[in-house]
Design brief:
mainly alpha, 62% helix, DNA-binding transcriptional regulator, MarR family, DNA-binding transcription factor activity, Arc Repressor Mutant, subunit A, 151 residues, 3-stranded antiparallel beta sheet
Length: 151
């Protein structure tokens, strides 16, 4: 099948690619789960952050985020503390153990990326990363009321 025969849109292609990544990203290989990797990567980039910001940044619902944070805390990878400026909020930080686990997982993840994205040049991979980040940032900033409006 040639490239011109592929008529699926980008969302279908991203979903298929995501399934390949998910299947290859085992806890045995990463040392942590893929969901924990995503949470720790967000915490690294936004440390400290509020629980609400983490929920929004990971594109998950609040209950799921609480369960994920419970797992991260039980494993000693992250901590929640009351925000001294607003006791109703929790601030989330990554522990030193979380930093080590993230470093190990990201190193293993690079191997998976190399295998799955082998058909792309380094420049194409950088462009793909930039475009995905841009699309994600735009989608996350969109008001919730517009997320599921029928066309």
């Amino acid at each position: 099948m040639s490239d011109t025969a592929i008529t699926s849109g980008p969302i279908v292609l991203l979903t298929r690619l995501s399934r390949l990544v998910h299947r290859a990203s085992t806890p045995e290989l990463l040392g942590i789960s893929l969901k924990e990797l995503a949470a720790l990567a967000y915490l690294r980039d936004h440390d400290p952050t509020t629980q609400r910001a983490l929920t929004q940044g990971l594109c998950v619902d609040a209950n799921y985020c609480v369960l994920l944070l419970n797992e991260l805390e039980a494993a000693g990878l992250a901590e929640r503390h009351r925000d001294p400026a607003d006791r109703r909020r929790h601030l989330v930080t990554m522990t030193e153990a979380g930093r080590r686990a993230l470093e190990q997982a990201e190193h293993a993840q690079e191997t998976i990326e190399d295998e799955i994205l082998t058909g792309l040049s380094p420049q194409e991979r950088a462009t793909l990363t930039q475009l995905l980040r841009q699309a994600l940032d735009s989608a996350v900033r969109r008001p919730a009321a517009q997320e599921h409006t029928p066309r």
